[in-house]
Design goal:
heterodimer; A: alpha/beta; five-stranded parallel β-sheet; five-stranded mixed β-sheet; about 45% helix; B: alpha/beta; Rossmann fold; 6 helices; 5 strands; about 40% helix
Chain lengths: ~375, ~140
């Protein structure tokens, strides 16, 4: 990794010290740079990008400790070794606490200097390698999610496309029984695609990739859009879905796409787990630091013992007769993760047989 | 006297989508020309002078569809096609994949005239095409 000469920067106000160090270092094949005080030293750190910095602790102007801290700010991977003028343990300990790799008490021999520097450089090499491995791993992880998404979904989508074309009667007439089976195949495939989608969202959320475009948003607008999108779902059971009262201030700090998903998940549940001719009402309120949106339904409700677990991945409330209810078991868990990534929270209250209420709290814009 | 037939170029690296999409378009009596890569697509655009283009986003690379779309809409080379409607058809769902695909627009690239998730509903596809061709 260190094919080019390692660069060592010596920051010391004593000229004799700078000279002897740079001689000792040049002799064994390092490139030595010097600076006579802290501020020149920091300029040189930026300019020469050293692998290791030797800092005299006792200098006029910026103190050695401050220089040490600033070097860390410029590049945390630069190794710092401090030179302590008189071997006071306290100053060395303080420097180590502030991130120095080691210390060298004066006077020292060229051999002692080289040993410490070589050790420091080995350490740096290790840090850099770890760093580059970490970056590579992150890159693979990021692309992995995208790749899985494309690789898993493409074939399924192609199958779906054929079903759609057949069902659309585009390649000849389809008999009733065939139509029914293909429709069911398509619906099962829909469920599978939704599961992959949700699973990928979980993966993205866990790697912090999804809530990335936070801006002031009108929560009312977001919810209105989702209500319109969800309208077709209400038709089967004749469920009324409406926006109730709204506070004047509805501006939140939010990522539009993911918040849409939160309300899409909550409202879908409120419709699915409702009773025929049930109601879903969404209200928006302004609290001290948060804007809250409550999604309230008159559905089947959730028993007390299940409530603590409903936000867990793949947790399903087991009930005998709800075979028709489809879902991936990830919707609430995704909603909660998204809201928490916004610095908000989701609260739930429910009464079995009467309905549930989910309240999302989001930070005000 | 033969009426001019409306031509649609479908560019998608998935032969299955090509095979599924073709009968849909033909059912509405469009002349369908297909291409399995952006390069082949380019050739077909120049030779067939389509009235509309259906374009997949992710082909050889993640942004193929986007680059081609941008080129058609903005470059001199495609000057005579810059007003040809382009519909993106992609398996990368709007809420996940195109989050990054559409970043192209943030980088100043010109997006398509419309966007559809795969699988497309045949009637939806035909309705959208018709809407553009009426103009």
């Amino acid at each position: 990794m260190l094919e080019k000469k390692p660069v060592i920067l010596v920051i010391d106000d004593e000229e004799s010290m700078r000279d002897s160090c740079s001689q000792a270092l040049t002799r064994v094949g390092f490139r030595a740079e010097t600076a006579e005080d802290g501020s020149i030293g920091l300029e040189k750190v930026k300019e020469t990008k050293p692998d290791l910095v030797l800092i005299d602790l006792k200098m006029p102007g910026i103190s050695g400790i401050d220089v040490l801290e600033k070097v860390k700010e410029i590049d945390p991977n630069i190794i710092s070794v401090v030179i302590t003028g008189y071997a006071t343990v306290e100053s060395a300990v303080e420097a180590m606490k502030k991130g120095a790799y080691d210390f060298l008490p004066k006077p020292f021999t060229p051999e002692e200097l080289r040993i410490i520097i070589n050790r420091g450089l080995e350490r740096r090499e290790l840090i850099l390698e770890t760093e580059s491995l970490r970056k590579e791993k992150k890159l693979i992880e990021d692309n992995f999610i995208t790749m899985v998404s494309h690789q898993l979904q493409s074939p399924l989508v192609a199958i779906q496309q054929f079903f759609e074309v057949i069902l659309g009667g585009m390649v000849g007439e389809v008999q009733e029984k065939q139509k029914e089976m293909i429709t069911r195949s398509r619906d099962r495939m829909d469920g599978l695609l939704k599961l992959i989608d949700d699973w990928l969202d979980v993966a993205r959320l866990d790697s912090g990739q999804i809530v990335d475009n936070i801006e002031p948003l009108s929560l009312k607008k977001v919810i209105k859009k989702i209500i319109e999108d969800m309208r077709p779902l209400t038709q089967d059971d004749n469920i009324s879905l409406e926006l109730g009262s709204c506070s004047e201030n509805d501006l939140v700090q939010g990522d539009k796409e993911t918040l849409e998903q939160v309300f899409s998940n909550l409202i879908t549940n409120a419709i699915r787990y409702n009773k025929p001719k049930g109601k879903v009402v969404i209200t928006i309120k302004e609290n001290e630091d948060f804007i809250s949106a409550e999604v309230k339904d008159t559905g089947i409700g959730i028993a007390k013992e299940h409530l603590p677990f409903i936000f867990d991945q793949f947790y399903r409330v087991k009930r005998g007769e709800d075979h028709k209810i489809k879902g991936t078991g990830l919707g609430l868990s995704i909603a909660k993760k998204i809201v928490e990534a916004h610095g908000g929270s989701v609260q739930v209250s429910s009464e079995l047989g009467k309905g549930s209420s989910f309240t999302v709290l989001l930070p005000k814009a | 006297m033969e009426k001019h037939k409306t031509t649609i170029v479908v560019i998608d690296d998935d032969p299955d989508f090509i095979d599924a999409g073709t009968p849909v378009l033909e059912s509405a009596f469009y002349n369908v020309v297909t291409a399995l890569s952006p390069n082949e697509g380019k050739e077909k655009i120049f030779s067939e002078k389509p009235d509309l283009i259906l374009l997949d986003i992710m082909m050889d690379s993640l942004f193929d569809g986007f680059s081609l779309c941008n080129a058609i809409k903005t470059s001199k080379e495609y000057k005579e096609f810059k007003d040809t409607p382009i519909i993106f058809v992609s398996a990368v769902k709007e809420k996940t994949g195109s989050r990054f695909a559409f970043r192209g627009e943030e980088q100043g690239m010109i997006g398509p005239d419309d966007y559809m998730d795969k699988p497309v509903k045949p009637n939806d596809l035909l309705a959208r095409i018709e809407k553009f061709l009426k103009k």
